[in-house]
Amino acid sequence: MKYERGLLLIILSITILSGGRVDAVLQEASTQFGVLQELPDARPAPWMDKATSYENLTHHGDLIIENGTYLIENMEFHLIGNMSVRYEATVVARNAKIVLSPEGGVSFREAIVLEHESKFIAENLTIVFQPLSYDSSYIVVDDEAQLNITDSHLSGWGYIIARHNATVCIENGTLEGKNSIGAENCGVMTKDSASARIQNSKLDFAGARGESSILILKSNIQPRGVSASGNGSIEIENSDVGYSEWLGERSILRIANSTISGVQSAGSVLHIQDSQIKYDVSTFSNCTAWLIGTSVPRLNARGNSTIWLINSAAKEIKTWDEAQVNVGWQLPVLGTLTVPYTWIPILQTALFIAIVLGIIAALVLINKRWNRWQTEKMKREATSVDDV
What we know:
Layout: H1 2-17, H2 23-33, E1 37-38, E2 55-60, E3 63-66, E4 69-73, E5 75-80, E6 83-86, E7 90-101, E8 109-114, E9 119-129, E10 137-141, E11 146-150, E12 153-156, E13 158-162, E14 167-171, E15 174-176, E16 187-191, E17 195-199, E18 202-203, E19 205-209, E20 213-217, E21 225-229, E22 233-237, E23 240-247, E24 252-256, E25 259-266, E26 269-273, E27 276-284, E28 288-292, E29 295-301, E30 306-310, E31 313-319, E32 324-331, E33 335-340, H3 344-387
Parallel strand pairs: 2-5, 3-6, 4-7, 5-7, 6-8, 7-9, 8-10, 9-11, 9-12, 10-13, 11-14, 12-15, 13-16, 14-17, 15-18, 16-19, 17-20, 19-21, 20-22, 21-23, 22-24, 23-25, 24-26, 25-27, 26-28, 27-29, 28-30, 29-31, 30-32
Antiparallel strand pairs: 1-4, 32-33
Helix pairs in contact: 1-2
């Protein structure tokens, strides 16, 4: 077995140095070690019990996978180079660990690239991004490719980028890690008509740019931050979210039944319902924000932004420039009634005066009724005496 492994590594090295394709070598390797096994059909194989021991393999150089379906299973695979999955190929990785290391580069790199409608299906998989001197490593999901991650863990200095109509689905996953300066840096970014759905997972950040979208659903989603710009949209439900650092022009953020640290937005649309904001909401430019059934300690509105507080509470509100803040209530018969925030002191004074006047009117009416009752009583008593 040791002789066969040594021969395999020699074949791989010769293939790489000669500039040849390595996928054929991997197919040959699969017959001996189960490294990449071609499956009889294109569907993901059924779940297998978690392995008690791993086979180990280290591969130096770029790995190209085209056509067919391949399996990475019950092993620890160290890739010192890049992996490219393309031309409708499918990789199923389960009960395994993949360690992605740079080869000769110190800047950002595309560690795994999925393109041409290819698929990468991860089940009970651990992916470790080894640190670079600066910047990050990426898993790039491109050109209508699909990345499905279930019950898996991604850690280290890297994140997922989806673009050009690609899709990413993550369920029961953890994406977290730190870079060389200790900052959290593992998450999902969509752009160029790509989409992502993240459920029952934990990640450092999520971002959407340029006609792309991210849907974050269902309990225990804890991104430390989210951002959107250029028609990007993010929807969050039943989650605990960190700070939305910046929401750019034409972006959309929808939050429901969640807790969020704070929001900064310029030119975007915010719709936050039945949620709690821990610190503040700050709007700039032409931002429009709807807060329905939501509490926020501080509200800052600048530029031409407009904020609607419907059945919501804000302890402190400040406006600058042409910004407007409207306060409203949803009434059973009348529907939603809104007034400018600047009217609130006047309405409070008017309401106070109305209450005082109402009390005075009630007392006067009661006094009149009492006097009338007393007069009628006296008349009845006088009539009784005369009769006697």
